[in-house]
Amino acid sequence: MRRKLWLKIPLGIGFLFLAVFILMLLWNALIPVIFHGPVITFWQAGGLLILSKLLFGRFGGRPHRGGWHRNMWRRRFEEKMASMTPEEREKFKNECFSRFGERKMQTDNPPQAS
Fold first, then answer.
1. How far is it, in rounded angstroms, from Cα 41 to Cα 45?
2. Among 111, 51, 68, residue whose Cα is nearest residue 87
3. Burial classification of residue 24, based on how many CB atoms lie within 10 Å of its CB (0-12 exposed, 13-18 middle, 19 or more buried)
4. Rounded distance, CA 94 to CA 31, Å?
5. Nearest Cα to Cα of residue 39 among 48, 30, 47
6. In the chain, fewer beta carbons within 10 Å around the N or the C end?
7. How high is the mean pLDDT in each 10-residue block of the chain (114 residues)?
8. Cα angle value 12/13/18 (rounded, 5°)
9. What is the structure's pLDDT at 105?
């Protein structure tokens, strides 16, 4: 891991400078023309990037996949499904899939024709 660290640090710094430069170019190409706003410098663009990080979260990298909240929701959902009878479970699945416009789930035991 240490052997690759010497490569990751310069690449990370280079990527950060590239992101700030792209932000500056985009700002200067769009904001003054559209909103008659000011033209910004490289360091002001860096400040905007830091401000956006503080206000909106992550810079990038791996996407946030829900973490604890998703696991909590999934656990509650699985507990609810486990407490249902097979008929209730099938009815719930069919209602969910029909509500969102998807085809109904295929089951192991298709309904019997009367």
1. 6
2. 111
3. buried
4. 49
5. 30
6. C
7. 77 93 96 94 95 78 60 83 89 82 51 54
8. 95
9. 47
The predicted structure's pLDDT at residue 104 = 44
What's CA 75's distance to the chain center, in Å? Answer: 21
What is the 8-class DSSP label of residue 61? Answer: S
- Which amino acid is residue 15, in one-letter code? F
Q: How far apart are CA 74 and CA 51, in angstroms?
A: 33
Distance (Å) of CA 3 to CA 7, 12, 49, 66: 8, 15, 30, 32
Residue with tokens 């002001």: 44
Q: What are phi and psi of 111, to 5 degrees?
A: -60, 145
Q: What is the CA 32 to chain-centroid distance, rounded?
A: 30
Q: pTM for this one? A: 0.50
Q: Which token pair is 19? A: 């992101």
The single residue listed with the structure tokens 């298709």 is: 110
Q: Cα(first)–Cα(last) distance of the chain, in Å? A: 66
pLDDT, residue 27, reads 95
To which H or E segment does residue 110 belong? Answer: none
